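Support request, please re-run this one:
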Amino acid sequence: MQVSSLNEVKIYSLSAGRSLPEWLSDRKKRALQKKDVDIRRRIELIQDFEMPTVSTKIKVSRDGQYIMAVGTYKPRVRCFDTYQLSQKFERCLDSEVVTFEILSDDYSKIVFLQCGRFVEFHSQHGHYYKTRIPKFGRDFSYHYPSCDLYFVGASSEVYRLNLEQGRFLNSLQTEASESNVCDINPVHFLFAMGTAEGKVECWDPRTRNRVGLLDCALSSVTADTEIEGLPSISALKFDGALNMAVGTSTGQVLLYDLRSSNPLIVKDHHYGLPIKSIQFQHQLDLIISADSRIIKMWNRDTGKIFTSMEPEHDINDVCLYPNSGMLMTANEAPKMNIYYIPVLGPAPKWCSFLDNLTEELEENPESTVYDDYKFVTRKDLENLGLAHLIGSSLLRAYMHGFFMDIRLYHKAKTMANPFAYEEYRREKIRQKIEETRAQRVQLKKLPKVNKELALKLIEEEGEEQQFSKKRKQKNLPSLLKDDRFKVMFENPDFQVDEQSEEFRLLNPLVSKISEKRKRKLKILEELEAQGQEEEEEPEGKASDAESSESSDDEKGWVEEVRKQRKLLRQEEKLKRQERLKEDQQTLLKPQFFEIKEGEEFRSFKDSAKKQKLMKKTLEDRLKLEEKLGTLNVSDTTVGSKQATFKLKKSEQQRKQQEAEKQHRQERKTLRRSASHLKSRRGRGRPFH
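Re-run finished. Output below.
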C-alpha cells in the first residue's frame, strides 16, 4: 500500500503492488509471498478486482453492495460483491460497451449501450433482450417517472425507448449535429444534453419542448486559458435542483446555476485533455473532476485545489463510493485502482478495518512516495550546476519546479559544496551544547492555585522522563500542559484542602512529603522575588537515601494512619467541649409556636420524635416499625422478601371509628330491649 500526500491530504492507494497470475498454484503463491516483501505487504481489498486488458466504466449499485465494471478483451462485465469481497459473476458480451446503467437497487436490471448500435438488457439470470437504435449511441439516461430511455449519439435526434410499453416513442429533434453526453436531474427530472458545438440543451420530458440553451464554449474561454479548436461538451452532471457541472473537451470544468446563463466558476485542468468524469462531494463541498491523466479535487465556491492524484495509467472513468472516502477508477490497464482518502469520509462498512489500519500508519509514519525524490526549483538547479538536465528524463516537471532522484541530488550537492561536512560537524556540536544547557536546573514558574500539586506533578514528570529514557518509551503528556485540567490550577474553587479529614486519612504520608515540597516552594518563591537563576541543583539527599526513606515510609504507613486518627479524635473532643461551653453561656429565651387548624397540641416530644425519625435512615425506620407491629417482613418461596405495611390512622379517622363503634353498641342495646318487650307481651304479663 502506497501513501502519498499533497496539501497535507493523505491518499492511500489500496491497489498498489504486484498481482499474482491466476494460473499459479497455491503452493507457488505462498512461496512467492515468503520471498517477495512487496507481495507480502500488498492489500487485496476485493479479490481479482481487475480486467483482462482494459476497464472502461465502473459503477456502484444503489444499495452499495455490488460494484460493476465493464472492459475488454473480450468484451465483458464483472460484478463484485462487497459483502463477500470477491467476484460474484462474469458475463461476456458480443461487442464493446460504450456505457451502462444499473436500473434497480441491485444487479437484477442492467442496460448496456454497445458500440455496434446495440442496446442489451440483462436481468438477474443473465441476457434478457437485445435491440438496436438507428444511429451510433454515445450516452443514455433513464427517466424513472415515465420509464423512458433517452439515447444521444451521432445524430441530431434524441431517441426515446419506453420500457413499460416496449416500443420506441417519437424522438426529440435538436439543433445540434451530434451529442456526446446527457443527464437527468434527480429532483425535477430536467433532461440536459451536451453537444459537439459546445452547447447544453435542456428539455422538459413532460412537454417534450426545449426550455433552455447554454453556450458553454464561449463561457469556457477566459483570459488565462489557451484553447486550440472549438471546445465540445464531454461530461455533464447535475447536483441537486439548481446546480450543474459541465466538462469540455479542452479541459475546463464549468459550474452553473440553472437560473443564470453565466458560470459561477471556471476551473482549468491545464492539460488540454477532455474531462472524462465529474463527481460531487457534499461533506466538504468539493468537485472531483478527472481527465485521462489526473484527478483533481477542488472547492466548488473558491476553485482552490484540495488535492490531486496522478495514476500511472490513463483514466477512463471515476466512481466515488457513496458516503465514504473511497474512490475507484477504471484505467487503461488490467488492474482497477482503489484509493482511500480519510479526509473525505470514513471507510465503507464492508471494509471498516481500513480506518484502524490508517490510524496505525499515521502513528508509525513510513516513507511516502515522494521521500525518494527531491523537489528543486530552477534556481536550485543553477546553483548545483544541473540546469542542462531540464527537459531530460532525470527531471520531472511539477508546479514551479522539478522532481529529481534524491541520490543524484546528494551527489551533486557534495560536488558543488565540498565543505558540507564541516557545516554538518558544527551543527552537531551546537546541538550537543544545547542539550547540555537543557539539563541545567531552570527556574520553575508555578501556578497560583495548587502549587504543591503542581510541584508534585513536575517531580513525577522528571522521574518518568528518566525512566522512559532508560526503557526507550514514549513520554506521556503532562497534566500541567493539558487544557482539560487548566482550570484546576487557575480557579481557587479547586484548591485542595489539606486540613480536611478525607485528605489526611487518604494521604497519611503527605505530612513528610509536603514538608519537603514546602521547603522547595519557599526556595522557588525567593528566586522568583529576587529574579536570580541558579546553575546548580539545590542540596538534597542521594538517590540511595531517598529510596531507603521511601521504604521506611511504606513500613510506617499504618502508624501514620493511627496517628492521624488519634489527632482527628482529639480535635473532635476539643470541638465538642467548645460547643458545650458555648451552650452553657447562651441564655435560653421562650419561643412561641403557632398550631394549625384541625390539629391538637399534645407535647413537644411528639414533634421531636418526628424530627428524629426523619433524620434516621430507611433501615432504622423499618426496624422501628417492625418492632411496633406496623411492618411485617417475610421470606417468599423464590428467595426474595415481602414487606407488608399497616398505615397509621390520623386523629380524625380514629375519632370517626370510635363514634361508629359507639353507634353500633347503642343499636345493639336498642335491639335487645325491643326483643325483651316482645317476649313479655307474648306471655301476657301486664306492663307496670
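The radius of gyration is 45 Å. Residues 372-434 form one domain.
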